[in-house]
Amino acid sequence: MADLIEDEALRAKRLLDAQDKAVALFAEVQARGIVAPGVRETEASNAIRDLAADMFGVSRFWHKRIVRAGVNTLQPYKENPPDRVIGEDDIVFCDFGPIFEEWEADFGRTFVLGSDPVKLRLRDSLDEVWQAGRAHFDSRPDITGEQLYAHVVGLAEAAGWEFGGSIAGHVVGQFPHERIDGEKIASYVAPGSDGPMRRTDRNGQVAHWILEVHLVDRERGFGGFVEELLDLR
């Protein structure tokens, strides 16, 4: 592990830089048509891994790489559904945690291949729910992880979807952030996380957060996912 950076302005800059690189990576994923019909999920995942190495020298990811299509998009992070071939009129989401120069990004995006109106509406709802979740966080200085989770679940339901995840985010930082807070529930936007999100960790550093939204339509058999930095712009 690299030396711990204590300067808060520099920490924020490094996290934002890492996210900017993740944005650029996935813009190139879309431009190159890596997520396409006939491609297996594992093939797309490996192609994105290789692209990250070519573009930014990324050699590590701090969590498992996820590309899920069709019915697999119903499954939350912890599951490992069977590898699937992406279909002609599919919905696909990617969840990647690349490490850029010892700083973690956590970035999720959803792609709709085709013109299915319900899939397109779900894709659009992801950003709307995410933005509304951030606005709620911004307006409540003392909000807890479980309060934000409950609010995001309500936003999902109000938009006509089910919330598909057992969490709605987590801390993020200089790799590896697990050494800061371990696997304690306080590290998550989730039920039982009853401490204020705006706090310092045991090193006295500001806790920074990812907000993630997983929306599903179980009747139609698909979902979508988005995530990025919550408290930094």
3D architecture notes:
The protein is an alpha+beta fold and 233 residues long. 35% of the residues lie in helices and 19% in strands. It contains five helices and nine strands. The chain has helices spanning 8-31, 41-56, 117-139, 145-158, 178-181; strands at 66-69, 91-96, 99-100, 103-104, 107-112, 162-163, 169-172, 208-217, 222-229. Strands 6, 7, 8 and 9 form a four-stranded antiparallel β-sheet that branches. It has a three-stranded antiparallel β-sheet with strand order 1-2-5, with helices on both faces. A two-stranded antiparallel sheet has the order 3-4. β8 (208-217) and β9 (222-229) form a beta hairpin. α1 (8-31) crosses α2 and α3 packs antiparallel against α4. The longest helix has 24 residues, at 8-31.
Summary?
The chain has 233 residues and is of the alpha+beta class. It contains five helices and nine strands.
Topology:
Layout (H helix, E strand, L loop, with lengths): L7 H24 L9 H16 L9 E4 L21 E6 L2 E2 L2 E2 L2 E6 L4 H23 L5 H14 L3 E2 L5 E4 L5 H4 L26 E10 L4 E8 L4
Antiparallel strand pairs: 1-2, 2-5, 3-4, 6-8, 7-8, 8-9
Helix pairs in contact: 1-2, 3-4
